[in-house]
Amino acid sequence: MKIGIIGLGLIGGSLALEWRSQGHQVLGVSRSDITCQKAIERGIVDDASVRLTLLAAADIVFICTPMAAIAATVKQLIPHLKPETIITDVGSVKTPIVEACSQLWPNFLGGHPMAGTQYQGIDAVEKGLFEGRPYVLTPTETTSPAVTKQTEALVRSLNPQVYICRPETHDQAVAWISHLPVMVSAGLIEACLQEKNPDVLKLAKALASSGFRDTSRVGGGNPELGTMMAQYNRNQLLKTLSQYRQTLDQLIEVIQQEDWQKLQQHLEQTHNARKDFM
Ligand code: NAP
Hints:
This protein has helices spanning 10-21, 33-41, 70-77, 95-104, 145-156, 167-192, 198-207, 210-216, 223-232, 234-256, 260-274; strands spanning 2-6, 25-29, 47-49, 60-63, 86-89, 108-113, 134-138, 161-164. By secondary structure, the protein is an alpha/beta fold. Strand 7, helix 5 (145-156) and strand 8 (161-164) form a beta-alpha-beta unit. Residues 6-12, 30-32, 35, 64-67, 69, 73, 90-92, 112-113, 116, 120-122, 124 line the site of NADP nicotinamide-adenine-dinucleotide phosphate.
């Protein structure tokens, strides 16, 4: 299969590397010449260019740019493609992207490989990144079943856990388990920084260990990606944040009332429920 990848960063480069090693012909397009050169030298792609014309013969194209550039990239790409070419993307939010891109190209299917590291760009490319991780595909009533079938078959070769759902359902679910945690974790770091006593703050920083490392990790991640999540999934994120605020208020009340039995009930419930998310 001739596979086109636009945006040779962590996700795009890792997809390219995987499929090239399986024997597919992989053509990459990225913004910078240096990235394209590195992608060729490291065997990540068969050929790479800053020009979209390279993808004229592609059977399927994965748009792996930052979310803000996805729809504009589809628009620029269309004049260069065969009518049967499938376009899919890897953006972390689906509804606005699927709405915009399906109108531009009938063979568009939204996708989201839920794998990542804290690193970015071509130097972050990792073999086996998608193995065992979720890969969500989001067809709508206008998506041709053949497009979903072909894309799913290719995606399955990465050995991920494939999930198929509507774009809105994806966005609601990721608001809970991905976007809300980023804001909660960022809020945690910010709240700690409000400590007025410099000696206490200094000691807290020195004592911070595995608990703080686990709970602050996503809040200390890529600021651009966090902002994009909020911008593109604003309504769903606001719903989850306001539920979180209510839950925090309930916990505050229980502690203010020194109702330790009730607090233990809350913590027993979360202790039991956590495994269902893992
Ligand atoms: P990344 O490592 O920063 O890679 C994106 C690459 O796209 C950049 O390296 C840049 O390459 C290239 N690029 C930027 N604008 C472009 C344009 N207009 N045309 C062509 N290439 C362009 O980012 P990423 O983490 O791979 O994220 C890419 C997409 O995957 C995003 O939409 C994100 O929502 C999604 N995603 C990310 C994660 C994650 O955890 N990181 C997980 C799942 C999905 P140059 O070097 O050429 O400038």
